[in-house]
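#lab-general

N.A. 3:47 PM
ok so I finally got the sequence cleaned up, no stray characters, all 273 residues accounted for. can someone with queue access submit it? mine expired

B.Y. 3:52 PM
send it over

N.A. 3:53 PM
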Amino acid sequence: MKSLRSSWPFIRKKLQQADELVLFLDYDGTVTPICSHPDQAKLSPQARDLLEQVVRQPWIWVALVSGRALKDLKRMTDVGGICYVGNHGLELEGPKLRHVNPAALKARPLLKQIFRRLTVVLKPIAGAWVEDKGLTLTVHLRQVKQDDKFLVRNLFHEVVRPYREKKQVRITAGKEVFEVRPPVRWTKGTVVRWLLARRNALHPTAKVLPIYIGDDLTDEDAFQALGAQGVSVLVGSPNPLSRAQFRVASVDEALRFLQLLLEVWKGKGSRAG
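B.Y. 4:20 PM
back already:
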């Protein structure tokens, strides 16, 4: 994995050669810092202004791809013209586009049942809490004492094991979270491929450059989905196991990359294709 700063001349050339950009952005840890509680991770005025500038550019299409619930992601961001992708792709909404995965909708009653059980068993543990995101559940550990995290992990798996063994749910993990998802193989990578295919179909003769920026384990599926056809950027510490091509160290550096991208795109003038 290379530093984005040292690789900027290569990336700038790809930007200059492209007719259209398809920009995929994670939310937490990418365009806004990770906070101790999800409700605190509000988009800064500067980041919002930058996103609005990017969205207004001709031939740039932007999607926010998050594990958050769709309504939560829209509330926290509030930028028009963006495609909002919630619950790791299980629900999305954008200009002339709306979709909810039918298998996820079918699993909602079961997830409600698991939510109630997890809430009861985790209630005695300070800092542990369960978020019902409609189509998925998330157990948050960020505020849990280090000595209690192993207990939370054991209780979580004790509750979900019967459902997982019956293949009624899927279990995943991210940064300081455990997740319960519907039994459907649908990830950030799946939805990125789906959306990218749609953009390519709309503009079959254009040179489309997809870019994905993310910081979490759940973003690895998207990095893999892009492969060598696009630009994938990990936000955070070096990770030799990551499938991302490039890395920036922080949210500030990720936003700086967006600013540089914007300047290059404005300098191109009208679309060449």
